[in-house]
Amino acid sequence: MVKKPDRLKFLEVLDNAVGVFIDNSKNVYNNIIAISHNDADGISSLQIIQNLLHNLKKNFDYFIYNRSVSWATYLNGILPKRQTEKTAFIFTDIGSTLTELIPIITKRKEHFFILDHHEVENDVGLNDFPENLFFVNPTVYGFDGLDHIAGATLAYMFAKQISPSITNHAWLTAIGIAGDSLRSMDRLKSFNREVYQELIDEELIEDREGLILFGGMHNSIKNGLKYSILPFVKQLGGEGDEKIKSFLNQLQINPNKKTSELEKSEIEAIQKNTNLKTGHYALIPQKEGLLKFVFEHALLLNILSFKNISAAVSMIQQKTITRYAKAIYIDYVNNLTKNLKKVYTAINRFETKKAIFIDAGNGTIQPSNWSDTASFSMVNELTNPEKMLFLGGLERKTQMIKLSIRCSRKFIEINKGVGVNKVIAQIKTELGGNGGGHKLAGGIRLSKPSFNRLKNNIDQYVQFD
User: Is pLDDT of 9 > 50?
Assistant: First the structure.
Protein backbone atom coordinates (compact mmCIF):
# COMPACT_ATOMS: atom_id res chain seq x y z
CA MET A 1 0.00 0.00 0.00
CA VAL A 2 1.36 3.43 -0.98
CA LYS A 3 2.00 5.68 1.99
CA LYS A 4 0.21 9.04 1.84
CA PRO A 5 2.75 11.88 1.75
CA ASP A 6 3.11 13.71 5.07
CA ARG A 7 4.26 17.17 4.02
CA LEU A 8 4.23 18.71 7.47
CA LYS A 9 6.35 15.96 9.02
CA PHE A 10 8.89 16.07 6.22
CA LEU A 11 9.21 19.86 6.44
CA GLU A 12 9.55 19.59 10.23
CA VAL A 13 12.52 17.23 9.83
CA LEU A 14 14.05 19.49 7.17
CA ASP A 15 13.59 22.55 9.41
CA ASN A 16 15.27 20.74 12.30
CA ALA A 17 18.33 19.89 10.20
CA VAL A 18 18.49 23.48 8.94
CA GLY A 19 18.23 24.76 12.52
CA VAL A 20 21.08 22.55 13.72
CA PHE A 21 23.28 23.65 10.83
CA ILE A 22 22.56 27.36 11.39
CA ASP A 23 23.17 27.08 15.15
CA ASN A 24 26.58 25.50 14.59
CA SER A 25 27.77 27.14 11.38
CA LYS A 26 28.78 30.46 12.94
CA ASN A 27 30.78 29.38 15.98
CA VAL A 28 31.39 25.62 15.76
CA TYR A 29 31.98 24.42 12.21
CA ASN A 30 35.18 25.74 10.65
CA ASN A 31 35.32 23.18 7.86
CA ILE A 32 32.60 21.46 5.84
CA ILE A 33 33.08 18.36 3.68
CA ALA A 34 30.47 17.82 0.96
CA ILE A 35 30.02 14.42 -0.67
CA SER A 36 27.71 13.73 -3.60
CA HIS A 37 26.94 11.23 -6.35
CA ASN A 38 28.54 11.20 -9.81
CA ASP A 39 25.58 12.11 -12.00
CA ALA A 40 23.74 15.26 -13.09
CA ASP A 41 21.52 15.33 -10.02
CA GLY A 42 24.45 14.70 -7.70
CA ILE A 43 26.69 17.31 -9.32
CA SER A 44 23.85 19.86 -9.31
CA SER A 45 23.21 19.13 -5.63
CA LEU A 46 26.91 19.48 -4.87
CA GLN A 47 27.14 22.80 -6.72
CA ILE A 48 24.18 24.15 -4.73
CA ILE A 49 25.87 23.17 -1.45
CA GLN A 50 29.19 24.65 -2.62
CA ASN A 51 27.46 27.94 -3.42
CA LEU A 52 25.84 27.87 0.01
CA LEU A 53 29.16 27.35 1.77
CA HIS A 54 30.77 30.04 -0.36
CA ASN A 55 28.01 32.47 0.66
CA LEU A 56 28.64 31.56 4.31
CA LYS A 57 32.40 32.07 3.78
CA LYS A 58 33.15 28.57 5.07
CA ASN A 59 36.19 26.46 4.30
CA PHE A 60 35.06 23.36 2.47
CA ASP A 61 36.20 20.36 0.48
CA TYR A 62 34.15 18.15 -1.80
CA PHE A 63 34.27 14.54 -2.94
CA ILE A 64 32.22 12.58 -5.46
CA TYR A 65 31.17 9.02 -4.69
CA ASN A 66 30.49 6.58 -7.54
CA ARG A 67 29.24 3.68 -5.38
CA SER A 68 31.92 1.33 -6.75
CA VAL A 69 33.23 0.55 -3.26
CA SER A 70 31.72 0.29 0.22
CA TRP A 71 31.27 3.41 2.31
CA ALA A 72 33.77 2.11 4.85
CA THR A 73 36.45 1.84 2.18
CA TYR A 74 35.59 5.17 0.58
CA LEU A 75 35.40 7.20 3.78
CA ASN A 76 38.57 5.69 5.19
CA GLY A 77 40.61 8.21 3.24
CA ILE A 78 38.28 11.16 3.89
CA LEU A 79 37.32 11.05 7.56
CA PRO A 80 39.82 13.00 9.70
CA LYS A 81 42.00 10.73 11.79
CA ARG A 82 41.57 13.16 14.65
CA GLN A 83 37.87 13.56 15.33
CA THR A 84 36.55 17.06 15.90
CA GLU A 85 33.16 18.71 16.27
CA LYS A 86 34.50 21.62 14.21
CA THR A 87 34.08 19.58 11.01
CA ALA A 88 30.69 18.74 9.52
CA PHE A 89 29.70 16.55 6.57
CA ILE A 90 26.90 17.17 4.07
CA PHE A 91 25.94 14.19 1.91
CA THR A 92 23.64 14.79 -1.08
CA ASP A 93 22.06 12.31 -3.51
CA ILE A 94 24.23 9.46 -2.29
CA GLY A 95 21.76 6.61 -1.91
CA SER A 96 20.38 5.92 1.54
CA THR A 97 22.68 3.02 2.41
CA LEU A 98 22.21 3.60 6.12
CA THR A 99 23.12 0.06 7.13
CA GLU A 100 26.65 0.92 5.99
CA LEU A 101 26.77 4.54 7.13
CA ILE A 102 25.22 4.41 10.62
CA PRO A 103 27.94 2.20 12.18
CA ILE A 104 30.55 4.62 10.82
CA ILE A 105 28.73 7.78 11.91
CA THR A 106 27.99 6.39 15.39
CA LYS A 107 31.71 6.21 16.14
CA ARG A 108 32.38 9.80 15.06
CA LYS A 109 32.09 13.22 16.75
CA GLU A 110 31.37 15.21 13.60
CA HIS A 111 27.84 16.19 12.54
CA PHE A 112 26.56 14.39 9.45
CA PHE A 113 23.77 15.90 7.35
CA ILE A 114 22.36 13.44 4.81
CA LEU A 115 20.04 15.01 2.22
CA ASP A 116 18.81 12.18 0.07
CA HIS A 117 15.83 11.11 -2.02
CA HIS A 118 16.54 7.38 -2.42
CA GLU A 119 14.36 4.94 -0.54
CA VAL A 120 15.70 3.61 2.74
CA GLU A 121 16.46 -0.06 3.31
CA ASN A 122 13.66 -1.91 5.09
CA ASP A 123 15.85 -3.08 7.96
CA VAL A 124 16.90 0.39 9.13
CA GLY A 125 15.35 1.67 12.36
CA LEU A 126 14.55 5.30 11.67
CA ASN A 127 14.19 6.05 15.38
CA ASP A 128 17.60 4.69 16.29
CA PHE A 129 19.84 7.25 14.60
CA PRO A 130 22.96 8.46 16.40
CA GLU A 131 22.64 12.00 17.81
CA ASN A 132 25.17 13.39 15.33
CA LEU A 133 23.19 12.25 12.26
CA PHE A 134 20.60 14.57 10.72
CA PHE A 135 18.84 12.53 8.09
CA VAL A 136 16.45 14.29 5.70
CA ASN A 137 14.75 11.99 3.22
CA PRO A 138 11.26 12.72 1.83
CA THR A 139 10.66 9.08 0.85
CA VAL A 140 10.38 8.23 4.56
CA TYR A 141 7.31 10.48 4.65
CA GLY A 142 5.58 9.05 1.58
CA PHE A 143 7.08 11.12 -1.22
CA ASP A 144 8.40 9.55 -4.41
CA GLY A 145 12.14 10.10 -4.89
CA LEU A 146 11.76 10.46 -8.65
CA ASP A 147 8.33 11.97 -9.29
CA HIS A 148 8.15 14.31 -6.31
CA ILE A 149 11.63 15.48 -5.38
CA ALA A 150 15.08 15.28 -6.96
CA GLY A 151 18.28 15.37 -4.98
CA ALA A 152 18.97 18.89 -6.25
CA THR A 153 15.48 20.00 -5.21
CA LEU A 154 16.12 18.80 -1.67
CA ALA A 155 19.59 20.38 -1.56
CA TYR A 156 18.09 23.67 -2.74
CA MET A 157 15.31 23.59 -0.15
CA PHE A 158 17.93 23.02 2.57
CA ALA A 159 20.30 25.70 1.28
CA LYS A 160 17.62 28.34 0.68
CA GLN A 161 16.49 28.26 4.32
CA ILE A 162 20.07 28.81 5.46
CA SER A 163 20.96 31.49 2.91
CA PRO A 164 18.06 32.95 0.88
CA SER A 165 20.51 34.50 -1.59
CA ILE A 166 21.14 30.99 -2.90
CA THR A 167 18.05 31.61 -5.07
CA ASN A 168 20.41 33.19 -7.61
CA HIS A 169 21.79 29.70 -8.23
CA ALA A 170 18.43 27.91 -8.20
CA TRP A 171 18.63 27.17 -11.95
CA LEU A 172 20.97 24.32 -10.95
CA THR A 173 17.92 22.57 -9.54
CA ALA A 174 16.36 22.27 -12.99
CA ILE A 175 19.38 20.29 -14.20
CA GLY A 176 19.08 17.84 -11.33
CA ILE A 177 15.35 17.46 -11.89
CA ALA A 178 15.78 16.85 -15.62
CA GLY A 179 18.57 14.36 -15.06
CA ASP A 180 16.55 12.23 -12.66
CA SER A 181 12.88 12.62 -13.64
CA LEU A 182 13.27 11.69 -17.34
CA ARG A 183 10.07 13.46 -18.30
CA SER A 184 8.87 16.71 -19.83
CA MET A 185 8.57 19.57 -17.38
CA ASP A 186 4.77 19.80 -17.57
CA ARG A 187 4.62 16.38 -15.89
CA LEU A 188 6.56 17.36 -12.76
CA LYS A 189 4.87 16.87 -9.40
CA SER A 190 5.01 18.05 -5.77
CA PHE A 191 8.26 19.76 -4.67
CA ASN A 192 9.84 19.40 -8.10
CA ARG A 193 6.84 21.21 -9.61
CA GLU A 194 6.89 23.93 -6.93
CA VAL A 195 10.58 24.67 -7.30
CA TYR A 196 10.34 24.57 -11.10
CA GLN A 197 7.55 27.16 -10.98
CA GLU A 198 9.72 29.29 -8.68
CA LEU A 199 12.50 29.17 -11.29
CA ILE A 200 10.07 30.38 -13.95
CA ASP A 201 8.71 33.17 -11.73
CA GLU A 202 12.24 34.33 -10.89
CA GLU A 203 13.14 34.21 -14.63
CA LEU A 204 16.03 31.88 -13.86
CA ILE A 205 14.81 29.49 -16.55
CA GLU A 206 12.53 29.80 -19.56
CA ASP A 207 9.73 27.29 -20.00
CA ARG A 208 8.70 26.45 -23.58
CA GLU A 209 6.23 24.12 -25.23
CA GLY A 210 7.08 22.18 -28.37
CA LEU A 211 7.91 18.82 -29.92
CA ILE A 212 9.79 16.72 -27.37
CA LEU A 213 12.95 15.07 -28.68
CA PHE A 214 15.08 15.02 -25.54
CA GLY A 215 18.70 14.44 -26.38
CA GLY A 216 18.43 16.44 -29.59
CA MET A 217 16.37 19.50 -28.67
CA HIS A 218 19.32 21.78 -29.44
CA ASN A 219 19.84 20.21 -32.85
CA SER A 220 18.30 20.21 -36.32
CA ILE A 221 15.06 18.26 -36.71
CA LYS A 222 16.99 15.67 -38.76
CA ASN A 223 19.42 15.06 -35.93
CA GLY A 224 16.70 15.50 -33.34
CA LEU A 225 14.76 12.55 -34.75
CA LYS A 226 17.94 10.52 -35.11
CA TYR A 227 19.40 11.19 -31.68
CA SER A 228 16.31 11.59 -29.49
CA ILE A 229 16.52 9.26 -26.51
CA LEU A 230 13.29 10.39 -24.84
CA PRO A 231 11.30 9.35 -26.69
CA PHE A 232 13.32 6.98 -28.82
CA VAL A 233 11.76 7.33 -32.28
CA LYS A 234 11.32 3.68 -33.21
CA GLN A 235 10.98 4.33 -36.95
CA LEU A 236 13.98 6.68 -37.22
CA GLY A 237 16.15 6.49 -34.10
CA GLY A 238 19.71 5.44 -34.88
CA GLU A 239 18.99 5.38 -38.63
CA GLY A 240 21.10 6.92 -41.42
CA ASP A 241 20.69 10.51 -42.54
CA GLU A 242 19.19 9.65 -45.93
CA LYS A 243 16.22 7.80 -44.47
CA ILE A 244 15.44 10.66 -42.10
CA LYS A 245 15.90 13.31 -44.79
CA SER A 246 13.53 11.42 -47.08
CA PHE A 247 10.93 11.29 -44.29
CA LEU A 248 11.15 15.04 -43.68
CA ASN A 249 11.25 15.97 -47.36
CA GLN A 250 7.99 14.10 -47.90
CA LEU A 251 6.50 16.31 -45.20
CA GLN A 252 8.03 19.40 -46.85
CA ILE A 253 10.09 20.17 -43.74
CA ASN A 254 13.66 21.43 -44.03
CA PRO A 255 15.81 18.71 -42.40
CA ASN A 256 18.24 21.38 -41.17
CA LYS A 257 15.63 23.46 -39.36
CA LYS A 258 16.16 23.62 -35.58
CA THR A 259 13.84 21.37 -33.59
CA SER A 260 13.01 24.27 -31.25
CA GLU A 261 12.04 26.50 -34.20
CA LEU A 262 9.46 24.21 -35.83
CA GLU A 263 6.11 25.74 -36.74
CA LYS A 264 2.91 24.31 -35.27
CA SER A 265 1.89 22.89 -38.67
CA GLU A 266 5.29 21.18 -39.05
CA ILE A 267 5.01 19.66 -35.58
CA GLU A 268 1.53 18.35 -36.39
CA ALA A 269 2.77 16.82 -39.66
CA ILE A 270 5.56 14.97 -37.83
CA GLN A 271 3.15 13.80 -35.14
CA LYS A 272 0.76 12.32 -37.71
CA ASN A 273 3.55 10.06 -38.96
CA THR A 274 5.19 9.13 -35.63
CA ASN A 275 4.25 8.51 -32.01
CA LEU A 276 5.80 11.81 -30.91
CA LYS A 277 4.11 14.22 -28.52
CA THR A 278 4.45 17.84 -27.49
CA GLY A 279 5.38 18.94 -23.99
CA HIS A 280 7.31 21.52 -21.99
CA TYR A 281 11.07 21.87 -21.83
CA ALA A 282 13.38 24.28 -19.99
CA LEU A 283 16.05 26.68 -21.17
CA ILE A 284 18.80 28.36 -19.11
CA PRO A 285 18.93 31.99 -20.36
CA GLN A 286 22.57 32.69 -19.46
CA LYS A 287 23.92 29.65 -21.32
CA GLU A 288 24.38 28.97 -25.03
CA GLY A 289 24.04 26.10 -27.48
CA LEU A 290 23.58 22.66 -26.01
CA LEU A 291 24.07 23.94 -22.45
CA LYS A 292 21.05 26.22 -22.85
CA PHE A 293 18.75 23.17 -23.00
CA VAL A 294 18.27 21.75 -19.51
CA PHE A 295 17.74 18.09 -20.41
CA GLU A 296 20.69 18.04 -22.79
CA HIS A 297 22.84 19.83 -20.19
CA ALA A 298 21.91 17.17 -17.63
CA LEU A 299 22.62 14.39 -20.10
CA LEU A 300 26.05 15.86 -20.83
CA LEU A 301 26.87 15.90 -17.11
CA ASN A 302 25.81 12.27 -16.81
CA ILE A 303 28.07 11.37 -19.74
CA LEU A 304 31.07 13.32 -18.45
CA SER A 305 30.65 11.87 -14.96
CA PHE A 306 31.78 8.50 -16.32
CA LYS A 307 34.40 9.89 -18.70
CA ASN A 308 35.96 12.78 -16.82
CA ILE A 309 34.44 13.79 -13.49
CA SER A 310 36.56 16.97 -13.30
CA ALA A 311 35.19 18.06 -16.67
CA ALA A 312 31.65 17.39 -15.46
CA VAL A 313 32.12 19.49 -12.33
CA SER A 314 33.67 22.27 -14.41
CA MET A 315 31.02 22.12 -17.16
CA ILE A 316 28.12 22.97 -14.88
CA GLN A 317 29.75 26.37 -14.34
CA GLN A 318 30.44 27.04 -18.02
CA LYS A 319 28.39 29.21 -20.38
CA THR A 320 29.27 27.31 -23.55
CA ILE A 321 30.23 23.73 -24.27
CA THR A 322 33.86 22.86 -24.99
CA ARG A 323 34.90 21.02 -28.15
CA TYR A 324 36.01 18.12 -25.99
CA ALA A 325 32.62 17.82 -24.29
CA LYS A 326 30.68 18.30 -27.52
CA ALA A 327 32.60 15.50 -29.23
CA ILE A 328 31.91 13.19 -26.28
CA TYR A 329 28.21 14.11 -26.31
CA ILE A 330 27.81 13.44 -30.03
CA ASP A 331 29.61 10.12 -29.75
CA TYR A 332 27.49 9.16 -26.75
CA VAL A 333 24.04 9.89 -28.18
CA ASN A 334 25.06 8.26 -31.43
CA ASN A 335 26.04 5.08 -29.57
CA LEU A 336 23.05 5.23 -27.23
CA THR A 337 20.48 5.47 -30.00
CA LYS A 338 22.18 2.58 -31.78
CA ASN A 339 22.11 0.62 -28.51
CA LEU A 340 18.41 1.35 -28.04
CA LYS A 341 17.84 0.12 -31.57
CA LYS A 342 19.73 -3.09 -30.64
CA VAL A 343 17.56 -3.60 -27.58
CA TYR A 344 14.43 -2.95 -29.64
CA THR A 345 15.32 -5.21 -32.57
CA ALA A 346 18.15 -7.67 -32.15
CA ILE A 347 20.10 -8.14 -28.92
CA ASN A 348 19.94 -11.54 -27.17
CA ARG A 349 18.04 -11.80 -23.94
CA PHE A 350 17.06 -14.29 -21.28
CA GLU A 351 13.49 -14.02 -19.99
CA THR A 352 11.60 -15.49 -17.07
CA LYS A 353 8.12 -14.81 -15.74
CA LYS A 354 9.26 -11.74 -13.82
CA ALA A 355 12.52 -10.62 -15.40
CA ILE A 356 14.55 -9.95 -18.53
CA PHE A 357 18.36 -10.26 -18.57
CA ILE A 358 20.27 -8.54 -21.35
CA ASP A 359 23.98 -9.36 -21.57
CA ALA A 360 25.57 -6.09 -22.64
CA GLY A 361 29.12 -7.34 -22.11
CA ASN A 362 31.80 -8.45 -24.55
CA GLY A 363 31.60 -5.18 -26.47
CA THR A 364 27.89 -5.49 -27.28
CA ILE A 365 27.19 -2.20 -25.49
CA GLN A 366 29.82 0.07 -23.98
CA PRO A 367 29.86 -0.18 -20.15
CA SER A 368 29.49 3.60 -19.85
CA ASN A 369 26.18 3.24 -21.72
CA TRP A 370 24.73 0.39 -19.64
CA SER A 371 22.90 2.54 -17.13
CA ASP A 372 21.31 4.88 -19.64
CA THR A 373 20.57 2.12 -22.13
CA ALA A 374 18.67 0.31 -19.38
CA SER A 375 16.89 3.48 -18.28
CA PHE A 376 15.82 4.59 -21.72
CA SER A 377 14.92 1.07 -22.81
CA MET A 378 12.47 0.88 -19.92
CA VAL A 379 11.16 4.45 -20.21
CA ASN A 380 10.56 3.90 -23.92
CA GLU A 381 9.09 0.42 -23.27
CA LEU A 382 11.54 -1.28 -25.63
CA THR A 383 11.27 -4.32 -23.35
CA ASN A 384 8.18 -5.78 -21.70
CA PRO A 385 7.14 -3.21 -19.03
CA GLU A 386 5.61 -5.99 -16.93
CA LYS A 387 9.07 -7.48 -16.31
CA MET A 388 12.09 -6.15 -14.44
CA LEU A 389 15.10 -5.43 -16.65
CA PHE A 390 18.64 -6.50 -15.67
CA LEU A 391 21.16 -5.12 -18.16
CA GLY A 392 24.90 -5.37 -17.71
CA GLY A 393 27.93 -7.62 -17.78
CA LEU A 394 31.45 -8.21 -16.49
CA GLU A 395 33.20 -5.07 -15.29
CA ARG A 396 36.89 -5.48 -16.12
CA LYS A 397 38.16 -3.11 -13.43
CA THR A 398 36.48 -4.92 -10.54
CA GLN A 399 36.00 -8.36 -12.16
CA MET A 400 32.45 -8.23 -10.84
CA ILE A 401 29.14 -8.33 -12.64
CA LYS A 402 27.65 -4.86 -12.85
CA LEU A 403 23.89 -4.70 -13.43
CA SER A 404 21.70 -1.72 -14.20
CA ILE A 405 18.23 -2.69 -12.98
CA ARG A 406 15.03 -0.99 -14.10
CA CYS A 407 11.29 -1.48 -13.88
CA SER A 408 8.19 0.41 -14.96
CA ARG A 409 5.40 1.92 -12.90
CA LYS A 410 3.18 -0.78 -14.38
CA PHE A 411 5.50 -3.42 -12.90
CA ILE A 412 5.19 -1.81 -9.46
CA GLU A 413 1.40 -1.75 -9.71
CA ILE A 414 1.23 -5.41 -10.77
CA ASN A 415 3.61 -6.49 -8.00
CA LYS A 416 1.91 -4.55 -5.17
CA GLY A 417 4.55 -1.90 -4.64
CA VAL A 418 7.65 -4.04 -5.22
CA GLY A 419 10.25 -2.05 -7.11
CA VAL A 420 13.95 -2.10 -7.92
CA ASN A 421 15.05 -0.88 -4.49
CA LYS A 422 13.34 -3.78 -2.68
CA VAL A 423 14.73 -6.33 -5.10
CA ILE A 424 18.25 -4.95 -4.70
CA ALA A 425 17.89 -5.01 -0.90
CA GLN A 426 16.86 -8.67 -0.99
CA ILE A 427 19.69 -9.55 -3.38
CA LYS A 428 22.23 -7.86 -1.11
CA THR A 429 20.86 -9.66 1.94
CA GLU A 430 21.08 -13.10 0.34
CA LEU A 431 23.91 -12.74 -2.20
CA GLY A 432 25.95 -9.75 -1.03
CA GLY A 433 27.15 -7.04 -3.39
CA ASN A 434 27.14 -3.24 -3.42
CA GLY A 435 24.28 -1.13 -4.75
CA GLY A 436 21.03 0.66 -4.21
CA GLY A 437 18.42 2.79 -5.93
CA HIS A 438 14.84 3.98 -6.32
CA LYS A 439 11.64 2.07 -6.99
CA LEU A 440 12.19 2.43 -10.73
CA ALA A 441 15.97 2.42 -11.08
CA GLY A 442 19.09 1.15 -9.37
CA GLY A 443 22.22 -0.85 -9.79
CA ILE A 444 24.31 -3.53 -8.11
CA ARG A 445 27.72 -5.17 -8.41
CA LEU A 446 27.90 -8.89 -7.67
CA SER A 447 30.55 -11.58 -7.73
CA LYS A 448 30.25 -14.02 -10.62
CA PRO A 449 28.96 -16.91 -8.44
CA SER A 450 26.36 -14.62 -6.86
CA PHE A 451 25.24 -13.43 -10.29
CA ASN A 452 24.81 -16.99 -11.51
CA ARG A 453 22.67 -17.78 -8.48
CA LEU A 454 20.62 -14.65 -9.12
CA LYS A 455 20.01 -15.47 -12.77
CA ASN A 456 19.04 -19.07 -12.04
CA ASN A 457 16.60 -18.07 -9.30
CA ILE A 458 15.58 -14.56 -10.30
CA ASP A 459 11.83 -14.94 -9.87
CA GLN A 460 12.20 -15.76 -6.18
CA TYR A 461 14.11 -12.50 -5.63
CA VAL A 462 11.42 -10.51 -7.45
CA GLN A 463 8.56 -12.27 -5.68
CA PHE A 464 7.37 -10.70 -2.41
CA ASP A 465 4.45 -11.94 -0.33
Answer: yes
